[in-house]
Amino acid sequence: MTPSITDSAVKAAIAAIASESATVAEKIQMLIEMAQGFQKKPKTAQDLRNAVSLYYRADELCGEEYPLLKARAQIGMAGTLQTIPDAGTQLLMQAKAGYEEALPILQELASPEEVAEAQMNFGLALQSLVPFNLARITDSIQAYHEALRVFTWEDYPQEYAILYNNIAIAYLSMPMASEREYLRQGLAVQSFEVALKHINLIDHPREYAMLQNNLGNALQYLVSSHPVENNLRAIAAYDEALKVRNSKDTPIEYANTISNKANALFNLPDELEKPEIGNPKNLLKAYNYYQQAWEIFTQHQQMEQAEVISQAIQDLEAEMGIS
Hints:
By secondary structure, the protein is mainly alpha-helical. The chain has a domain at 1-11 and 22-110. 72% of the residues lie in helices and 0% in strands. Helix 2 (24-40) runs antiparallel to helix 3, helix 5 runs antiparallel to helix 6 and helix 13 packs antiparallel against helix 14. The longest helix is centred in the N-terminal third of the chain and has 21 residues, at 89-109.
């Protein structure tokens, strides 16, 4: 395998830093900044691995003399490890250990914002480990809540929206006995609603659309004795998301939302007062949305999603008696 340009660039940069007459602290800072460059705009997975090796070199240079720089290198490395595509449990466990070691030092020496960002990413790392029984979802939720002490809606609306979105998804993934199923779903719905009190369409359209779309999903699958009412609320939430998402500017997000809306229409009677007459009109609307979503996913090479929609179309054709 021929080394990529970035590989040789990394080697050259490390050699240059080694020969620099800069102080050790300046060299560490340079390594961290280079690593961040790779981490923020990676073109390939190799860029992320290069970032890890630069953070590692910075960490080694720190020794015991530069605790804050060492913590920053560890946090940077942890954040990179968890974004490597198909990061296995080993890399995620390494990331978790990095956060656990660095966070107490950051709490002592860094700004509240820097600590909160690390807690937000730590929460994500824990959440990724939950399916493998290697972390607890309650610890993930706690990390998000810690970050919310700093990332308030007034000062950091984007982070605030993402944190509440993550909290809601964490609640939805909580394993609970079936009779308590409604409880976790209710907590998820509540989390989206709390965030939407402050995140509005005009000032934060993108976050608003994300929260409304995901609120719709939570409502649609809510275990409840009022399924029709929940589906109506879900459709209203999707319509709010569609005030922002459209096929031209945000095609993938738009396709996601219209396919979610189609799912809700599939289960909604045409006339609420006469559910016995069925829902041929809503099925037709759902069919059109699915077709549109399938075209967008296929066009944008989102084959997994296209496959799911293709299956939904087949189910719907069977329901409508189209052969």
